[in-house]
Write a structure and sequence with these properties.
With 226 residues, the chain is an alpha/beta fold. It has helices spanning 47-54, 77-87, 103-108, 119-132, 148-160, 178-193, 205-209; strands spanning 5-16, 19-31, 36-40, 62-67, 70-71, 88-91, 166-170, 198-202, 213-218, 221-225. It is built from seven helices and ten strands.
Length: 226
């Protein structure tokens, strides 16, 4: 089976004054279709850099990254943006919803950039995504009319609407209270049971250890992959 994401000896170095900071150091990792993986580590461990590599938000100093078996090294920013929009659904800690748009319009937004989905199809797919996350009765509500948990559900629906190969969630429970965070994690588990491939980046040990697969990173290297 071809991995959804594959990193081969990926390094990311930064020059800070006279020093070389090894944010990632010879990291190899595969994410298979249907897996639910947590990437966990303390601040400064390299997990955010690893997330940026998995999400095609940054390019490595050395090594190779493959998405659905295709090598993305050397691609233009325009091509990388196309891959991010088509292949990866992003969920962020602070939701990143557009305040002037209602839930349905926020979820429809990524489909505007695909260039191949008409208005009726965009609306239908957005409605289906919101129903999947339990917000059938909140489609016309704007972000300021939603709770934190509802906002994150809208963000998850937005990530689902392009039918991506991978859902990448960056600290998705970080802005939520404990009870709501548990509900969001339960939703991710339901989506994974339906076949969605999910990667969560977190520093929270309780969140990380609740995922079927755990990748711990420290000092730019993977120290556990279970």
């Amino acid at each position: 089976m071809v991995p959804v994401i594959e990193l081969e000896n990926v390094s990311r170095y930064y020059i800070v004054g006279d020093f070389v900071v090894k944010a990632l150091d010879q990291v190899s990792l595969q994410i298979q279709k249907g897996e639910f993986t947590a990437i966990m580590g303390p601040s400064g461990s390299g997990k955010s850099t690893l997330m940026n590599m998995v999400g095609c938000l940054d390019t490595p100093t050395s090594g190779r990254i493959l998405i659905d078996g295709a090598d993305i090294n050397g691609l233009s920013e325009e091509d990388l943006a196309y891959i991010r929009n088509k292949k990866i659904g992003f969920v962020f800690q602070q939701f990143n919803l557009l305040p002037k748009l209602n839930a349905l319009e926020n979820v429809m937004t990524p489909l505007l950039y695909t260039g191949d989905v008409g208005v009726a199809e965009r609306k239908l797919r957005a409605q289906e995504a919101l129903e999947k996350v339990g917000l059938k009765d909140r489609m016309k509500h704007r972000p300021n009319e939603l709770s934190g948990g509802q906002k994150q559900r809208v963000a998850i629906a937005r990530a689902l609407v392009t039918q991506p190969s991978l859902i990448l969630a960056d600290e998705p429970t970080g802005a939520l209270d404990t009870k709501t965070g548990i509900q969001i994690m339960d939703l991710f588990k339901e989506l994974n049971n339906e076949g969605h491939t999910i990667v969560i980046v977190t520093h929270n040990d309780e969140i990380g250890t609740s995922c079927p697969r755990l990748v711990r990173i420290r000092d730019g290297k993977i120290e556990e992959n279970s």
